[in-house]
Specification:
heterodimer; A: 599 residues; 25 helices; 20 strands; B: alpha+beta; 4-stranded antiparallel beta sheet
Chain lengths: 599, 175
């Protein structure tokens, strides 16, 4: 054999190594993207991919019980690791069941790559079995999506999908792959050879804006940091830089629901969450501040209350990676479109190099005012010896777990979620997973599955309500299969509590269909799943039962029977401003007709 | 200090926007879905591939809204993954906007003569003629087409087909 032939053989070998079926390409692309876990559910249109998965090592597949569970689990995985969550589901109902999770991830900017099977290309448009227009249905609930009709496009699209999901403002993407494309053979392109034609997110801040921002901060007499999920999404370095900026300035910090953990709740500058169920001090500081530094938050209606009375006296700096968030709800004085880590890094640098000083005397007065607001103790409540108050249950759960640094909390949606946000304190980012934008009941249990998959030894608690948890209860079976010791801590008040609270306040106590009739016995249900069931009825047994829950290395359903009529305070009633908060039911408070129209 | 309230702050304005996009499957649905999903208006829309080599399409949309809404529309369009560029011709004031329409007028006698005379004044060209009807082709700014249609209405207007606005910048530069 001469040299030429050897060379030819080598080239042929290299080429054949890259030639593979569409299904193999999918698995190869996942491996090349560093994916170690996928959440999925098989079906006819993804069988070739499942077959390729069967023959490969290094990727763990987590079989869920419903595709919605797969997407929420992937969200929990993504939010607790900073890596993209990956989902594999079949066509038709597999894809439509994923829609809630996709919308949830889009609203909360969670990076997901969702792969769906599709009927073969020649059957598309014929109303074939398990056919649906997946890209049509998911177009408004993904950052981008693709139907891959040609094997030649597959590897490029898969790598673009990861790039788009994880960079800029993160979000879910979906790749729809017809079954015939999964069987076809084509040549595989690695991630390094793929670069998107148009997608170029802007991440570097404009330095002149940074200079202006630090000047505004230095001149501020009543400053406030208003931070959001953008800090978390930018990575742990952004949280570290935020802390450094607060070290330098001593400014107070509040956060959205999504941003909890970016700044330590244990520090004196922390005012607690703002917004509809935020603290008195956070909302009053927001109302009265003269310079607001909004970092990676988007002026959501739960945060602003009545927009026309929102922080009326402040100059506003708004840092966001997504230019479309600037001036969307509130007109700002200084927009900065950039990645939070990069922008915060420059803010810290300019503050130091330009030797800025804070307005010491004014700041002292501002803190005196804030401490006066703090004196209201807006999170206080009347405890009871005879019945477990939900606030007390969360306080005890927090107290009995706070010595651990590896506690991850997910939630469902409703009163329990707000109580958890108010009372379960976080000192690190990526430890708090809740459905913020979409408000998806049923998020927390599957999200806890995803978190525990990513952190097998950590303590993962889903703070749940008895109504929410029934929406995705089937995933307890997933937790059992993969031996995930998740703790489902149900604040069982026998009501859709937040619905009941609004009916009480807004609809004349007509509790229309908000009572959880015919509840299952959660302890027996735990038995049926083969996990541990616990129940606490009285305050006196709460600590013991929580300790028992923490001591078992198995999934636990904890039925914590709480006061069915407790409401979540403080509260900004719909249509009201930050300085018109209600602290307790005794505050009464008229809700305007315009307010009643709001959600 | 300024008014922080964004919505309902000003009068609606009409703006012409051009979006240059990758000509890929679903891109028009993505743009149109953005408008319907967020409650923005579309008064007219034209789309065609403009560079087969670069696989780019040009979508020109006439929309209306307050200045704040128009600003949102532009930034939402820029955010779409397949978008190359967005231009607002109304703000830029350096664009040429043209629309073409085919207008059918049926009638006989004096009205028919009058229709032809008007068409001549508007530089509208008959592209189909029968003893009882004309089809006129007219090109111009949308307002000119509006007034021509109004003039034809009493003269036997039976059908109108409009292309929507196409826009391009003046001078040597691309958009």
């Amino acid at each position: 054999m001469d040299m030429d032939d050897t060379l030819k053989d080598a080239v042929a070998a290299a080429e054949s190594a890259q030639a593979m079926s569409g299904a193999q390409m999918v698995i190869r692309a996942l491996k090349d993207q560093g994916v170690t876990h996928i959440f999925g559910y098989p079906g006819g249109a993804v069988l070739p991919i499942y077959d390729a998965l069967f023959q490969v090592e290094g990727i763990t597949h987590v079989l869920v019980r419903h595709e919605q569970g797969a997407v929420h689990a992937a969200e929990g995985y993504a939010r607790s690791t900073g890596k993209p969550g990956v989902v594999l589901v079949t066509s038709g109902p597999g894809a439509t069941n994923a829609v809630t999770g996709l919308t949830d991830a889009l609203m909360d900017s969670i990076p997901l790559v969702v792969l769906t099977g599709q009927v073969p290309t020649h059957l598309i448009g014929t109303d074939a079995f398990q056919e649906c227009d997946t890209v049509g249905i998911t177009r408004p609930c993904t950052k981008n999506n693709w139907l891959v009709r040609h094997i030649g496009d597959l590897s490029r699209v898969l790598h673009e999908a990861f790039e788009i999901a994880t960079t800029g403002r993160p979000g879910p993407v979906l790749v729809d792959i017809p079954k015939d494309v999964q069987f076809q053979t084509g040549s595989y392109l690695g991630p390094q050879s793929v670069h998107h034609r148009t997608y170029r997110p802007k991440t570097d801040p404009d330095l002149s804006s940074i200079v202006k921002a630090v000047e505004m901060m230095a001149a501020a007499k009543k400053p406030l940091f208003y931070t959001g999920g953008g800090i978390i999404n930018s990575g742990p370095e952004a949280s570290a830089l935020l802390r450094e900026l607060v070290d330098l300035t001593g400014f107070p910090v509040t956060s959205t629901l999504m941003g909890l953990g970016a700044f330590p709740a244990s520090r004196p500058e922390w005012l607690g969450m703002l917004g509809m169920h935020g603290t008195w001090e956070a909302n009053h500081a927001m109302h009265d501040c003269d310079v607001m530094i909004c970092l990676g938050a988007r002026f959501d209606d739960r945060c602003t209350g009545k927009v026309s009375s929102f922080s009326p006296k402040s100059k506003k700096i708004h840092l966001d990676i997504d230019a479309s968030q600037i001036n969307k709800i509130v007109r700002v004085d200084l927009p900065i479109v950039a990645d939070a880590t990069k922008a915060l890094c420059e803010m810290v640098r300019f503050w130091k190099t330009q030797k800025h000083k804070v307005q010491g005397a004014a700041l002292k007065e501002w803190w005196a005012q804030i401490n006066q607001w703090r004196g209201k103790k807006s999170l206080s409540y009347r405890n009871s010896d005879s019945i477990i108050k939900p606030q007390h249950a969360i306080d005890r759960l927090y107290e009995l777990t706070k010595h651990r640094s590896d506690v991850y909390v997910t939630t469902e949606v409703g009163q329990h979620q707000m109580w958890a946000a108010q009372r379960f304190h976080f000192n690190e980012p990526n430890h708090w997973m809740t459905s913020g934008g979409l408000g998806t009941m049923g998020y927390g249990l599957p999200a806890a599955v995803g978190v525990q998959i990513a952190h097998p030894d950590a303590l993962v608690i889903d703070i749940a309500g008895e109504a929410s948890v029934q929406m995705t209860m089937q995933e307890m079976s997933t937790a059992m299969q993969y031996e995930l010791p998740i703790k489902i801590f149900i604040l069982n008040n026998e009501y859709m509590g937040m619905v009941r609270q609004w009916q009480e306040i807004l609809h004349g106590k007509r509790y229309s269909h908000s009572y959880s009739e015919a509840l299952p016995d959660f302890v027996k249900m735990a038995d049926a799943f083969g996990c541990v069931g616990l129940r606490a009825d009285k305050p006196s047994e709460l600590d013991g039962k929580i300790q028992e829950m923490l001591s078992v290395r198995r999934p636990v359903l904890f039925d914590c029977r709480v006061d069915p009529t407790e409401n979540c305070y403080p509260m900004i009633p719909s249509g009201a401003a930050h300085n018109e908060m209600l602290l307790s039911p005794d505050d009464g408070g008229e809700i305007s007709d315009a307010g009643k129209m709001l959600v | 200090m300024h008014d922080t309230k964004i919505k309902q702050s000003a009068e609606n304005e009409r703006h012409t926007l051009t979006v240059l996009v990758d000509n890929e499957a679903g891109v028009l649905a993505r743009v149109v879905g953005l408008f319907s999903g967020r409650g923005y208006n579309i008064e007219s829309l034209t789309v065609a591939e403009v560079d087969p080599m670069a696989r780019t399409s040009r979508i020109t949309i006439v929309t209306s809204g307050t200045p704040e809404v128009i600003e949102q529309i532009e930034s939402q369009l820029r955010r779409l993954v397949p978008t190359h560029a967005v231009t607002n011709w109304t703000s830029a004031k350096a664009g040429i906007e043209r629309e073409m329409a085919l207008i059918k007028v049926a009638g006989t006698g004096e009205k028919r003569v009058e229709a032809l005379r008007m068409a001549d004044a508007f530089r509208a060209r008959p592209v189909d003629t029968t003893h009882a009807s004309f089809v006129f082709e007219i090109t111009g700014a949308p307002a000119k087409i509006d007034s021509f249609i109004e003039l034809m209405r009493p003269l036997g207007l039976v059908d109108v087909s409009r292309t929507g606005v196409a826009a391009i910048s003046r001078g040597p530069e691309a958009m």
